[in-house]
């Protein structure tokens, strides 16, 4: 289920048909991985121009309401259709938290695609100032400090609905204590356009 719409959310950029194309591509790449052991090679020229743009995405797989894999990129590095195919394959077969997906799990597999906006640095004077600027249900955040880094997609607001909890768990994901604070912490904000095959079927 997607987060509740917010007046801060950017308007949808991709049509229902474009979303369906990307979901079909993700499915095809997973099926190709089962058959061939590698991601599907994508002919970008066979897709609309908006899907050929260099954009970053995450692909999340859920089975029976439980996370089954999630892989993505925070920065754009290839055409969106190639990123979707690569991340769908990686989420199914190379998420180190899970065994490789089996053919028997395809039925009922929920595929969720999140397309990221470019991230923007946030300016804040304190932890409370940062919390006050966070937009529940809208913002994805990247936290970095030294060599530590972690991110939460906007969909995480579904389970961590208030800003203080969201920030505490993001610190843990970045390898920091939940009550840690340093003026050297860097935070970057992004939004996503997200959709799944359960919504569009």
Polypeptide structure, described:
By secondary structure, this protein is α+β, with helices and mostly antiparallel strands. It has two domains: 16-116, Hypothetical protein ph0010, domain 1 (Glycoprotein, Type 4 Pilin); 120-191, Dna Ligase, domain 1 (2-Layer Sandwich). It has six helices and eight strands, in the order ααββαββαββαββα. Strands 2-1-3-8 form a four-stranded antiparallel sheet. It has a four-stranded antiparallel sheet with strand order 4-7-5-6, covered by helices on one side. Helix 1 (16-36) packs across helix 3. The longest helix has 21 residues, at 16-36.
Bin the strand percentage: 15-25%
Please count the helical segments: 6
CATH class of the largest domain: Alpha Beta
* Overall tally of structural domains: 2
What would the keywords be for this entry?
single chain; 201 residues; alpha+beta; Glycoprotein, Type 4 Pilin; Dna Ligase, domain 1; 2 domains; 6 helices
Summarize the structure.
30% of the residues lie in helices and 22% in strands. With 201 residues, it is of the alpha+beta class.
Indicate the topology.
Blueprint: H1 16-36, H2 49-52, E1 57-63, E2 66-72, H3 80-93, E3 110-116, E4 120-121, H4 127-133, E5 140-145, E6 148-152, H5 163-173, E7 186-190, E8 192-196, H6 197-200
Antiparallel strand pairs: 1-2, 1-3, 3-8, 4-7, 5-6, 5-7
Helix pairs in contact: 1-3
């Amino acid at each position: 289920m997607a987060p509740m719409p917010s007046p801060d959310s950017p308007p949808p950029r991709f049509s229902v048909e474009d979303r369906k194309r990307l979901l079909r591509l993700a499915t095809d790449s997973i099926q190709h991985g089962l058959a061939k052991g590698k991601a599907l090679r994508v002919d970008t020229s066979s897709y609309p121009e908006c899907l050929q743009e260099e954009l970053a995405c995450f692909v999340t797989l859920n089975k029976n309401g439980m996370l089954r894999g999630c892989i993505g990129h925070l920065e754009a590095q290839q055409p969106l259709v190639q990123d979707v195919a690569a991340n769908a394959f990686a989420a199914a077969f190379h998420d180190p938290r899970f065994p490789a997906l089996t053919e028997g799990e395809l039925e009922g597999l929920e595929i969720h695609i999140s397309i990221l906006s470019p991230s923007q640095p946030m300016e804040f004077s304190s932890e409370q100032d940062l919390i006050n600027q966070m937009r529940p249900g809208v913002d994805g955040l990247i936290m970095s400090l030294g060599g530590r880094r972690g991110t939460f997609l906007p969909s995480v607001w579904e389970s961590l609905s208030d800003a203080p909890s969201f920030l505490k768990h993001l610190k843990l994901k970045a390898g920091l204590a939940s009550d840690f604070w340093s003026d050297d912490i860097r935070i970057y904000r992004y939004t996503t356009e997200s959709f799944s095959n359960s919504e569009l079927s």
